[in-house]
Automatic annotation (TrEMBL):
It comes from the Bacteria. This is YCII-related domain-containing protein. It comes from Nocardia alba. Residues 15-105 form the YCII-related domain. Transmembrane segments: none annotated. Pfam families: YCII (PF03795). Belongs to the YciI family.
């Protein structure tokens, strides 16, 4: 089985949706997570905090540079992710389609190096 990263691509404004409006999506995502566990595809998943609260650490030069905010300015950001196991890309695509429907966002699929 290959492990795939299913990245949830969101517009940062999604973080401004009131909790009560987002609740149905959270509940649908929870049910989807339970389905993945039952199917044996679940490895790990998580939602991420606001991109404007990120901190970037750069230790590629002479000094460590710590900067408030994301590494790059973009119109979309990573809002969450799943790591799933699937026998092939076609199976991962089917899981990603279900994930996109339940969280109502676009999903990017990537394998891990060496997969």
């Amino acid at each position: 089985m290959t492990q795939y990263l299913l990245s949830v691509v969101v517009d940062p404004s999604v973080y401004d949706i009131p909790q009560e409006e987002a609740q149905p999506s959270y509940e649908a995502t929870g049910r989807f997570n339970d389905e993945l566990r039952a199917e044996g595809a679940w490895v790990f998943a998580g939602g991420l905090g606001r991109v404007d609260e990120a901190t970037t650490v750069d230790n590629t030069g002479a000094d460590v540079v710590v900067t408030d905010g994301p590494y790059v300015e973009t119109k979309e950001c990573l809002g969450g992710f799943w790591i799933v196991e699937a026998p092939d890309l076609d199976a991962a695509l089917k899981i990603a389609a279900r994930a996109s429907a339940v969280c109502e966002q676009k999903i990017e699929i990537r394998t891990f190096d060496g997969a």
